[in-house]
From TrEMBL:
Gene3D superfamilies: Anticodon-binding domain, Bira Bifunctional Protein, Domain 2, C-terminal domain of ProRS. Belongs to the class-II aminoacyl-tRNA synthetase family. ProS type 3 subfamily. The gene is proS. This is Proline--tRNA ligase. The keyword Aminoacyl-tRNA synthetase applies. GO terms for cellular component: aminoacyl-tRNA synthetase multienzyme complex; cytoplasm. SMART domains: ProRS-C_1. Catalyzes the attachment of proline to tRNA(Pro) in a two-step reaction: proline is first activated by ATP to form Pro-AMP and then transferred to the acceptor end of tRNA(Pro). GO terms for molecular function: ATP binding; proline-tRNA ligase activity. PANTHER family: BIFUNCTIONAL GLUTAMATE_PROLINE--TRNA LIGASE, PROLYL-TRNA SYNTHETASE. Homodimer.
Amino acid sequence: MSKKLPTRQEDYSLWYNELVKRAGLAENSAVRGCMVIKPYGYAIWEKMQRQLDDMFKRTGHENAYFPLFVPKSLFEAEEKNAEGFAKECAVVTHYRLQTDPDKPGKLRVDPNAKLEEELVVRPTSEAIIWNTYKNWVQSYRDLPLLINQWANVVRWEMRTRLFLRTAEFLWQEGHTAHATAEEAVAETRQMLDVYAEFAEEHMALPVVKGVKTPNERFAGAEDTYCIEALMQDGKALQAGTSHFLGQNFAKAFDVQFSNKEGVREHVWGTSWGVSTRLMGALIMAHSDDEGLVLPPKLAPIQVVIVPIYKTGELDALIERIRPIQQGLIARGISVKLDSRDTERPGFKFAEWELKGVPVRLAIGARDLDAGMVEVVRRDTKEKMSLPLADIVATVDQLLVDIQTNIYAKAKDFRDTHTTRVDSYDEFKRMLDEEPGFLLAHYDGTSETEERIKEETKATVRCLALAEPDEEGICMVTGKPSPRRAYFARAY
């Protein structure tokens, strides 16, 4: 193996970047600001995608696909949305290249191939989708319209970090249309719950469900709901959003329906999405100085078996190990039998530890003769010698225990790094000395929110749905405050 990873304590940002690369998750590409997701990283994303897709379909949604390009006139139809994304848009202006007469062997943009109307590469798909919905919705019988798409989007970023912020990223975006505001709000809240369930049950990531302030709201939405998670460096990460769009897009694109009384009305909309940013959350919430720590439900390889052998013994040993491998596979467990004869066991141990495989079995002929197996769990690094006779059932249960333990550890970290503060001085001190979620009173104005952000780099992450109303005094202005908000510095 190459030299050890930088530690989280030494340099958290460098630790993260090195871990993403060395664990074979992703790497920078020839296109500035864009990444290549490597097979091991994509395998994790596929497991996320498969689980979320099942959850969407259980709640009545169907998948479709819409164009990558959005005509500029459509994009600017909903003004707040267009203004919110304008600075991040990549724009196609020409449709052809030609040989450069001044530079043999080179190409240039054909000056005569200018598009009549520029095309925006989608930063989000509301415009193209709502323009399509105009043709799909005529009557109350066409509602609700519950559509999701898995896609890539482009938001031009100059300061990038693998998975967390790249110019192009993968995501899903749900876009739904409803007959009433109440139905649309219920959909918005339901999808927030789906995201929270996925994060907690599958990513082993505790989240705070809440609503964004107007300053942090999605451009074009009436309300934005979110799930917020805490990373091991005390910074928050927005892990998913669900937006109640009101009738803003329906009016911008004239999406109307005839209600049961025959009266024409504009529909009510929602949109909701999570992206490959979840990969960043998974890495930063659980991993350690030796490498990834993956929750078993999302690990591409849940169990790795490393044969311990002497020269000439490998083939015979593998034949004896096969029944164990097959028994685990029969339980639905993904197993890798590392039969490479080019690497020593110590190298393999370190490699699979780096890749975060939840359970490692080291098996030699002597172990099998004695009816025992050496088992190491990745989350605690505990090494056990366990009976061969029960090994399949034992490992199956161990994976459940590891999933539970990883969540419990992350929740304990989140809980011990969530602090109620009452003064602005204490607020600033905590951000620097003990970063995490800070629950503090502020007067609810955009001006105070901007001041706090400017002076401390902390933002209101959300007004938590579970946080009760509590009369207090704004820590900055001394004005009345009806409840505490979750603040943190964030990714």
